[in-house]
Amino acid sequence: MIIGIGETILDIIFKNDQPMAAVPGGSTFNALISLGRVLGGSVLFVTEVGNDHVGDIIVNFLADNGVSTDYVNRRDNAKSHISLAFLDEHNDAQYQFYKDHANVSIENNFPEVKKGDIVIFGSFFAVNPVLRPLVKTFLEDAHKVGAFIYYDINFRASHINDIPVILPAIIENMKMSSVVRGSLEDFQYLYASPDAPISAEEVYEKYIKPHCPCFICTNGGKPVELFTPAVRAEFPTTPVETVSTIGAGDNFNAGFIYGIEKVSQDGMALDIADFSTMSVEIWQKLIACGQRFSSAVCQSFNNYVDKDFRIS
């Protein structure tokens, strides 16, 4: 079972100040939609939405794409989240969010996680003080039973002022995770400043390695960097003509998890309970799947791969 926990949002995408598309989104949401499309079934999402029309759009979209909605919490008298995404000349997005972080809520109703399950989570949802007690308990339970836990930092500049409050939760999340992924930009916001650039190696040695042994750092179209106790490697990306980069990182996550399923089906030795000793050959296959998913989503206004997308 693949279990995601995170926020949902309706992304309204603008190009040259004109709306081009409106699509359901959210970091973990985007990854799960892609996984639901390529794997079908065995994917569920823990989230919250308003009991409004936008919430209806989101819930119906999940169900239509093979993602269980049994753990979607509908909130009465609350509005679902919306974001405006403005694409620049490189088709990278600048966001304006319309959310009410202080009043989000999820019921204490989580799926039972078993050994061998895959849990994916991240972004502010994972550290929001309002939700933290429930999210932390869920992650602790998943960690105890031996689930594979994939943490995407996905830290936005809009939360820089929250760093003193949420940094302890980020560290707790790392300690419970099998793999931590983030963009170099995430860590620039978290640990550095615009006039003090930070490297992926510095991030790993100072901020990841003390808590989690395995770290994947993405950096736009630049090579993906991998750091584990056994492997340090770079994996070049294939240039593509982008339409929108929204969802690129989320779909890297989806592709990586799809790669775990695919490698296991191909009979290669892969122990999801311990990635720290995994060979570079298997890491390369998993990261290549992530790159394929990410490239595919950059070539449309959708936040997820097409329904007929497959990796042979």
Outline of this structure?
The protein is an alpha/beta fold.
Description of the structure:
The model has no long low-confidence stretch (mean pLDDT about 90). This protein has eight helices and 13 strands. With about 300 residues, it is an alpha/beta fold. Strand 2 and strand 3 form a beta hairpin. The strands form two sheets. It has a nine-stranded mixed sheet with strand order 5-4-1-8-9-10-11-12-13, with helices on both faces. About 35% of the residues lie in helices and about 25% in strands.
Protein traits:
single chain; 312 residues; alpha/beta; nine-stranded mixed beta sheet; 13 strands; 34% helix
- Rough outline: globular
Helix content: 25-40%
Number of helices: 8
Oligomer: single chain
Instruction: Give me the side-by-side strand order of the main sheet.
Output: 5-4-1-8-9-10-11-12-13
- Secondary-structure-derived class: alpha/beta
What is the number of strand segments?
13
N-to-C CA distance: 22 Å
**What order do the SSEs take from the amino end to the carboxyl end, as H and E?**
EEEHEHEEEEHEHEHHEEEHH
The overall average pLDDT, rounded, is 88
Please give the radius of gyration in angstroms.
Answer: 18 Å
Strand-residue fraction?
Answer: 15-25%
Major sheet: size, sense and barrel closure?
9 strands, mixed
